[in-house]
Amino acid sequence: MSAPLMFIPVAVVLIASLSATPAASARVAPGLEPVKTTGFDAIAIPLVSFNSDQGFGYGAVGGMYLYAPGKKPYAHAISAQFFFSNRGVQNHSLKYDGPRLLGPLRVEGRLDYRREIRSPFFGAGNQSAPDFRGDVNNELYNFEKGTPGFWLRLRGHPFGDEHPLQSYVGYGWRHMRVEAYERSMLSMEKPLGMDGGNMGQLLAGFLWDTRDSESEPQRGGVEEFSLRVSGNATGNRYHYVGLTLSERRYFALSPRLTLAHRMTLDMLFGDVPFYEWSNTGGVNVSEGIGGMNSVRGIERNRFAGNIKAFMNTELRYQAARFQVLGQQLKVGAVAFVDLGRVWHPGVSDGKWWHWHPGVGGGLRFSRRAAVVRTDYAVSTGSGRQRFYVTFGHMF
């Protein structure tokens, strides 16, 4: 029997903040901060980690939030990540978010480079690789890839800032380099996309957003419909269409306790390359099924296919607020249940009730819009474990 899989990071969290004092005429309810704030928050996490998917790793992730009067939840946000591991993983990115950069339009963009000597491939479908026993380093379930890329998106409120409808358009591009190991499942199955190549996509979507807060929602929700189109005209050698439907809901059970729930359905149609099977569309792109953005506790991209569905339920508790150098910090705890499955043409996906669950809990450290998330999760199907450290709520 294989040992449980663990991801055990050692992280030092550094939070710096500078805020202007509100005007004396501004009246703020006790315990609340004014909507119109200035200054900035910065968070940096040096990482020394062991991950049975990626080996011993080192690097850093950091984010900065700049605030300005009348701009919610911030005026500018910039985040960067640099990560290397002794097993050939590189994941570097630079991301920008300007909620009102071009008048009423929100400008979002990301530039990144990823390289993985052991990128997971378990085949297609909800019952893929039945003989897998947890050794994610086995070349049978891996291939090598390198993918520089970027995306740019414009988002706005066509009927005014107070109206819940948002729309967006964008473009994403990536160059996929694929090298299959001789005795891997990828070499044996030879799915579409073995030759890699350029991936260009046009992106569009609509959101109906009734949340009371974007960064720390307690009430309301977000419904989203998104479309991504790929073909020769977009700079993609493959022709396919992706549709994503997502629902996020938040219920304030008490001033400190929030129930949060998300449902996502992603469907791909056409000549879909295998490296798209695990991706979803939308404003918040996810991978799966399996990993810190879909079903925690299950190996990353353990189950993949043309149709993916997953659900996440979190009970979020704000445990404490305290002052550090005159700035308010919050500590919270989360208990969660995740559930997901896939469907893929031409393979057996099992009974309709055959879903893959993960359960666990975690801690949250936050300063205004800046949130550090740590989660520990267990797959109830295999008993294997995962630990994650990242920025922002899962949804």
TrEMBL record:
Descriptive protein name: Outer membrane protein
Record organism: Pseudomyxococcus hansupus
UniProt-annotated location(s): Membrane
Domain Bacterial surface antigen (D15): 90-395
Signal peptide from the UniProt entry: 1-26
Keyword tags: Membrane, Signal
Cited InterPro entries: Bac_surfAg_D15
Source organism, top-level taxon: Bacteria
GO cellular component terms attached to this protein's record: outer membrane
